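Hi everyone, sorry if this is the wrong subforum. Our group has a chain we'd like a structural model of before ordering constructs, and none of us has done structure prediction before. Sequence below.
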Amino acid sequence: MSPTTTAVVIAGLAVGTYALKAAAPLTFGARPLPAWLDRLTEILPAALFAALVVVSTVTHEGDVVIDARLAGVGAAALALERKAPLIVVILASVATTALVRAL
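Answer:
Right subforum, don't worry. Here is the predicted structure as tokens:
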């Protein structure tokens, strides 16, 4: 990819990002959001993040793969369920992934 193409792509993405961020305030102004949309904006980030974690965990180059990453995410989920501190969650995930890969 040439430097000119790269610059054009980055500029286009910047303009698109700015337009998307400006769309909601321009559309709704000072009006409050409808109740259903307000609830959706509260839960949507968590759902999108969960989907990203699942896709990143069980796919590799477009194929579904069950490997050590899934065990690490499972260990992190278990630690989170038990209300462990973040550092413990991270260490449990890393240690579990490394252990499964070593086997």
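For your construct planning: Residues 33 and 41 are 10 Å apart (CA to CA). The chain has a mean pLDDT of 91.
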